[in-house]
Amino acid sequence: MHDELTQVDINKMKEELEHRRLVLRPQLIEEVKVARSFGDLSENFEYKAAKREKNRNDSRIRYLENMIKTAKVIDAAPSGEGIGLFDKVTFWIEEDEEEETIQLVTTLRQDALKGLISKESPVGKALWGHKEGDRVLIEASPTYSYYVQIRSVEHTGEDPDIPISTF
Q1: Phi, psi values for residue 144, rounded to 5°
Q2: pLDDT at 166 over 90
Q3: In angstroms, rounded to a whole number, what is the distance separating the alpha carbons of residues 37 and 39?
């Protein structure tokens, strides 16, 4: 399976990867060496913490390398009148009688707490390609779905300031 990412996503990952390899990794290796010199490794919390951070950084490096290697680069430009990538969408949730505004983004930039919803999520998939005024069924799971009414669509284009997700 390939993640569909924009060239901006790829560039951000390459920047982070370079920083982690060239700056962070040597620092973390040095921290492990210093902590090791404190003595008995079985009771050395500093060593365990330094080793954990080094391993976490190495894991992130592998993740970024794999994402870059397997990504399918897509164009972020709007495709027609329907809802597309990086569009801001305001919709009315009929069941809850409340309005919500989200922005559709790539999976790498999703952050539901900030209203950044992946185009691969149930909401993203359901809204994709629809227009203002459409009534759309969102299937959250096989046993739960709900209707929304699209109130407005703002074609914003890609915002390079939206950060990529970390773990």
Answers
A1: -140, 130
A2: no
A3: 5
